[in-house]
Amino acid sequence: MRDYIQRTPHPPPTEYITLSFYQFRPIDEADVFKIQYYFLTDLRPMDVVGRIYVSSEGINAQISCPKNRVEEFKTYYATHWPIFNKIRFNPAMSEGKAFKKLHVRAKKQLVSDGIDNSTFDLNNEPTYLTPEEWHKELSSLSEPPILIDMRNHYESAIGHFENAIRPDVTTFKENIEAMFEICKGKEDQDIYMYCTGGIRCTRSGALLKSKGFSSVKMLQGGVTAYGRYIQEQRGDAKEKADPSTSTKDAKVHSIYKGKNFTFDKRLGEPITEDVIAKCHTCGAPCDLYLNCSNMACNLLMISCPSCLQKHEGTCGSQSCVDMVKELNEKQKQIQKDHPGLIGMKARPGIKPYHEHRLRVRPLTVLEMRKNEVLS
Ligand SMILES: [Zn+2]
Ligand SMILES: [Zn+2]
Predict the structure, then answer these.
(1) Average pLDDT, the chain
(2) What NCBIfam families is this protein classified in (predicted)?
């Protein structure tokens, strides 16, 4: 395709901007690996980190780019990737490095639903509403619309749009099935849908339209873009507001409540201050996602600070607590015997729940473990 780009090293960056972008576009299977290779070799010298997925369907990326090199990255992208020229850079609400490393992976599907692309028209896209259009249209409806959250249960658990239908699903494939169930017989009605950044709706919207649904509207840039819109409105409102009114009164009424779940180390960014979820252990209002500190368990859980402290940062199951306590003791001993040596943080010791479906269902797993102990 072209030559490797040489770049001079910069000092390690400290400030980062997180961007996401995607485009469905058929690519020759043989080119997928070349694209993967070029992204890896080109972006590393730019200190870009994140996850880029390439497939014969197109590209889907979430990256953190050093703040002072964003323009360089955009110029690089515009120059070298004309094949993906329909992307929109979708910045995250908060600044900061959301990833540790750069991963570029070749995937079979960008978002897995197992549906063959030859069975529908991906170009039959839904109508894109900008966050402002979305906000105004949904705020002005007299009846609650058919509004579908195209994300998984653990994502919508900590934040969602008012009146949204939130299928209790663990995978995108299940959500597609739920979507068809919800929309059955409503071919002539307006259907609204949203997800984190838009890619899941671009695909599921095209599926609906190909099946004869006439009016499918999606939130362009997803919850991430809506969050930024609300953020900007508040910023503007603060500036324009009469000094005699409090900041609170000047706030735009967000029709999204709570956090936007993100698939990076932040595991979510707040859009409003509402806490709509509960601690999985004690039931106190909480929307802080964490992984069990026993790496072999790795359960994705919502845990309040007091439960976290009580259970050594684990999911609270006895085996995880014991394991982490034992490891911490060993760690202390190693530190004492060999100062400066960093030992292993965890080791297998509990039946691992690497299967995605279970890893994100902490209440089910904890219930199962309880039964295992009893039997
Ligand atoms: Zn708790
Ligand atoms: Zn655990």
Answers:
(1) 87
(2) PRK00142.1-1 (NF001133)
Q: What are phi and psi of 107, to 5 degrees?
A: -125, 160
Q: To which CATH superfamily is domain 117-224 assigned?
A: Rhodanese-like domain (3.40.250.10)
CA distance 215 to 205: 10
* Cα 279 to ligand 2 centroid, rounded to whole Å: 15
What is the whole-number distance in angstroms between the Cα of residue 313 and the centre of ligand 2? 9
Beta bridge mates, 103: 51
Tokens describing residue 296: 């072999």
User: H or E segment at 51?
Assistant: strand 49-55
ipTM score assigned to the predicted complex: 0.96
Tokens of 254: 């967000």
Contacts of 117 (CB under 8 A, 6+ apart): 26, 57
Residues 6+ apart with CB under 8 A from 41: 4, 5
Torsion angle in degrees (nearest 10) through CA of 237, 239, 244, 246: 50
In this predicted model, what pLDDT tens digit does every residue of 151-167 receive, in sequence order? 999 999 999 999 999 99
